[in-house]
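stuck on this chain:
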Amino acid sequence: MQIKVNGKDVNLNFGVRFIRELDQKAGLTLTVQGIKQNFGMALTKVIPALQSYDVAVLADLLYCAAWDNQKRPSLSDIDAYLDDTNTDIDKLFDDVQRELKSSNAARTATKNLKA
């Protein structure tokens, strides 16, 4: 999947690396005896928000999926892209849900997404 941010094509990859990136950004983190531990589970946490069309979660997903671009857009750039009135957010939500459902790495966790 590809989007255009600041006039530049941005490739989005929803594979294993995407899930790792998302776990770092939105995963379940606990501190036990002063040691911070990340337990992942971000995809499971964000699915309900994605289904309810939470645009902040969409921004985080796009940012994490852009991990393999030579010059990754910033989260602020992605926010501006989503704020642009020319961006069809409804279609983008549907496209992202479809991509997640077809991704080998995310398919099982997202099998109940409606797209």
In short: Residues 89-102 form the longest helix (14 residues). The mean pLDDT is 89.
